[in-house]
Amino acid sequence: MREIRIKNHKKDILIIDDTADNLRVLSSILIREGYTVRKALNWQMAMTACHAVVPDLILLDIMMPEIDGYQVCQRLKAWNLTADIPVIFVSALDDVFDKVRAFQAGGVDYITKPFEFEEVLVRVQNHLALRDAKIEILNLNSRLEQRVQRRTKELEDAMQKLQAEINSRQELQTKLLNIVLHDSLTGLPNRVLFLRKLESALNRTKQDDNYQFAVLFLDCDRFKVVNDSLGHFVGDELLIAIARRIQATLSPFDTFARFGGDEFAVLLENVTDLGMVKDLAEKIIQELSLPFKLSRYEVFMDASIGINWGDRNYEKPEFIMRDADTAMYRAKASGRARYHIFDPVMHSQAIKLLELENDLRRAVERQEFIIYYQPLVSLPTGRISGFEALIRWQHPQHGLILPTEFIPAAEEMGLIYPLTTWLLKSVCKQLRIWESCPVRSESLTISINLSARLFSNPNFLSEVDAVIHESQVNPANIELEITESVIMENSEAVRNVLYQLKQREFRLVIDDFGTGYSSLSYLHSFPLNAIKIDKSFVRRMQENKENMGLVPAMIGIAHSMGMKAIAEGIETPEQLIQLRSLNCDLGQGYLFSPAVEATRVIDLLTANPQW
Length: 611
Ligand code: C2E
Ligand code: CA
Ligand code: CA
Prior knowledge:
Elements: E1 12-16, H1 20-32, E2 36-40, H2 43-52, E3 57-61, H3 69-78, E4 87-91, H4 96-105, E5 109-112, H5 117-180, H6 191-207, E6 213-221, H7 223-230, H8 232-249, E7 255-260, E8 263-269, H9 274-289, E9 292-293, E10 298-299, E11 302-309, H10 317-333, E12 339-341, H11 344-366, E13 369-378, E14 383-395, E15 399-401, H12 403-412, H13 416-435, E16 445-449, H14 460-471, E17 478-483, H15 484-488, H16 492-503, E18 507-513, H17 520-524, E19 530-533, H18 535-543, H19 551-560, E20 564-568, H20 573-581, E21 586-588, E22 596-597, H21 598-607
Parallel strand pairs: 1-2, 1-3, 3-4, 4-5, 11-12, 14-16, 16-17, 17-18, 18-19, 19-20, 20-21
Antiparallel strand pairs: 6-8, 6-11, 7-8, 9-10, 13-14, 13-21, 13-22, 14-15
Bound molecules: ligand C2E and calcium ion (2 copies).
């Protein structure tokens, strides 16, 4: 906005009046007061005067021929040059109506003739001062506006700079992110980026029924050998070559990442059937089987692939990779340069086992176990000679669990020791009770199964001693069953423990005989009392009626070594007849009775059955 300068010199007043007399009087007063005064007799002259010099104030008569004061005023107000000039009407007309019209026409004041000079002067001065003030305000405003504009411009410039700075930082960030999300050797996406993509694939399957993805997890077979023998430089060169070859089998829509070391991963999206994925795995394996011609060496490198057919029920992408990894290990285990598809059953079994293990720990503390007893029958007499103690787990939710389901876990977890100690104590207590049973005159034996693990426990023997001492049971009535594998471990420690047990007069029985691979001469060197022929041989005896399988030989061996033969798993009367004919000493099986609870043992003893 342009700035208007306030005149410091004499103020210029234009008097417009058709009466020369009036003009004269008025002008002389004003001149005396120091104003420059010009005169115009009509609109025409006034216009010329304004053109020459724009006045600071106009004194205007109303009654003039042709164009009257009102009209002159209107024209002055409509004219750009004079619109801001204050116009004071000077007139003999003293009617309110006239004054109103004057103000409506744009006048700022109204002086009635005849006038008092002082009044005219004061009014003129006031309006001039008012005009100066107005101009000052306008100027201040315009300066303010300029400042605002300048500041706005400055701010805009600063904003522009800032934006440029932000842009360059974002660029840098993208570059850094790119570095962070990619493998520097191959330039492929890395694990982090892969998992992100996998996560969005997982989210998509949850929303879109038609969308299906699959993951291939690939691990080079024996890559370490190359690295160790030819050096890391060659190893790196090989990894790049492997990456290129795999990449060539993929479509641009697949995500291919180096997962770390010699591991790669592929995310296949929008796959329709598992066949497609298998084909790809085969193709990759095929491609990798060709020799790699590196700069100095020719290298062969296979890879094993784990496939996970993306399931929407996964919670996290990491879990998908975990299972793909499991499948990859299966592939490796089954002979390398293969693929294996992950089976969710594999995982749920693992989970179940984990839960079982947790429960098992508590079960030992809470003693949730029960002992069942299965009678052993003397085959010549047909009467019960003893019982085998078989443990069961009374699970608070799952009910009765058989030992085959939890004994291996208990062994793994180191719980077999407390479990067996508890069992041994309980069994000894039971035996004392049954021994005092009036219906029974002969002594009873109780068989206990011992895990291989127990033999490495240094406290085992002293614990056994303590239990025997406390219960006052005759060790000769206790049979300890061990499997062939225990003996096959051949450690001096095992042999030593067995001899010490034998010294205490425990009876030692080799269980599940025939399922291990113990050599007979080797068995001979152990202080054993009996062999228990595994039920699988007893079952097969019938299928092979002619020679009765291996059972006769086993009984013969036992007897030739001075041991008793026990047949387990006798289910039919035919089996019983055959075993009797072979002079088998003892038998056990559903034909006589399954394992029963301790309370039912008394019934059995009282009934004193004979088979
Ligand atoms: P095992 O020592 O060979 O025990 C014999 C198994 O055969 C028992 O299974 C028994 O119930 C079953 N059985 C008995 N008669 C017959 C029959 O006529 N036909 C068939 N098919 N099976 C018969 P159970 O009780 O399920 O025990 C399984 C295995 O668990 C035992 O095999 C033993 O190795 C182990 N076990 C049981 N209790 C203990 C224990 O307290 N400690 C240890 N370490 N292992 C135990
Ligand atoms: Ca047994
Ligand atoms: Ca057995």
